[in-house]
Amino acid sequence: MGRAGRIARGIMVLGSVLLLASCGDSFNDAYCEANNHRNQLTVEHLTHVLEQKRNQPGLYLARARCHYFLGAYTQALQDASEVIRRLPNKADAYLLRAKAGKMLGQIPQALQDYSAAIKFQPTVEAYYGRGLTYLREYPGKDREALEDFTAAIRLDPKHVGAHAFRAQIYSRHEQFQNALADSEQVLKLDSATPNAYCNVGFAHYALGHDAEGRKFLTTCYQKDPDT
Question: Per the structure, how many domains does the chain have?
């Protein structure tokens, strides 16, 4: 991209940021997305505007989101905390701080923040994030993880991850019929999910359905011999 193009892009991003500042919180998460090549530029312009308008929580939340997608988790956590200080009921800020804190290894605080996000605005992402935290970080919290994955599925019946991890918990507790139902749902929603065919096959075997188990496991090994 030439110099003129870079200038035009900068003007466009700055214009969007100024619109954000004038509109308060209504566009607070509209600018940075995963793998967006403009994220760094957006951070720079948000920082510039915040030097002039420090009373805009929406700008801090937008910048926190940008920092998160750039892998700057400490800065994301700091900006999300600033939003929470100003707006203690802001669910989006708790959710973002939970995600950043989890990446930084601050697991107990992340769990509290997921819970706060759910309290103020229950979302699929918040339930799923808390469920994963219970499952991966807290041995013995399978029941809590199961409840969160179920809540996520209730809000989004097509959430592949929630079905997959709920099936894992069911299998661990020998509830194989439930594990089979979730594993089949994963296969239906996204057959490319790792081990999708294998998980259905193992559940069939556990239920004594040997022929079905062999069929799905054979398909699994054909698709991925290293499984």
Answer: 1
